[in-house]
């Protein structure tokens, strides 16, 4: 199918199909783009003031990441990041998530130095996020992200995680504060 239908209004992202395989650059023929394009079409062209923590595209990226689809999560989150308000806290939080997903991918590809660098970059972004005043949008992704706990988990994990190579460095959904 050339252009899969966008998700139905109100359709939960955890019901969206996962890709049929995890893309590994240089090792797999290419990504299963259909589910990713469907998720990207559900995004607004631009978020008005903040990225809602319950945004379907953002949540789908979390589902992808926590299921081990690191390259795919990066792709979806990059689209969310592009639609996020410029210079906002959500962009920092999304960049950190993108670096964490990239770290998971690099670990799967057997590149420990890249993992350490990406974890350090994600931690620096989370530190910057914590230094910025919370916005007036308690429902935003950045304001619902427990950046301090996530930073501690990344520091404890680093490149020496005793996890299977296909497991996420951290389960990002576990660091969401619920209203």
TrEMBL record:
Name of the protein: DUF309 domain-containing protein
Parts of the chain that traverse the membrane: none
Species classification: Bacteria, Pseudomonadati, Pseudomonadota, Alphaproteobacteria, Hyphomicrobiales
InterPro entries for the chain: DUF309, TTHA0068_sf
Highest taxon, organism lineage: Bacteria
Region (Disordered): 1-33
Organism annotation: Chelatococcus reniformis
């Amino acid at each position: 199918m050339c252009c899969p239908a966008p998700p139905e209004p109100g359709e939960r992202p955890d019901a969206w199909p996962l890709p049929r395989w995890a893309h590994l650059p240089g090792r797999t023929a290419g990504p299963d783009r259909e589910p990713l394009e469907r998720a990207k079409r559900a995004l607004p062209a631009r978020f008005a003031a903040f990225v809602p923590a319950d945004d379907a595209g953002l949540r789908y990226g979390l589902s992808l990441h926590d299921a081990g689809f690191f390259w795919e999560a990066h792709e979806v989150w990059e689209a969310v990041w592009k639609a996020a308000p410029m210079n906002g806290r959500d962009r920092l939080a999304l960049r950190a998530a993108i670096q964490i997903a990239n770290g998971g991918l690099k670990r799967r590809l057997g590149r420990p130095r890249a993992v350490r660098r990406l974890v350090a970059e994600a931690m620096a972004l989370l530190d910057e996020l914590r230094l910025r005043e919370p916005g007036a949008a308690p429902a935003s992704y950045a304001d619902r992200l427990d950046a301090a706990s996530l930073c501690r988990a990344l520091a404890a994990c680093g490149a020496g995680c005793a996890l299977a190579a296909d497991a996420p460095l951290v389960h990002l959904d576990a660091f969401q504060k619920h209203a």
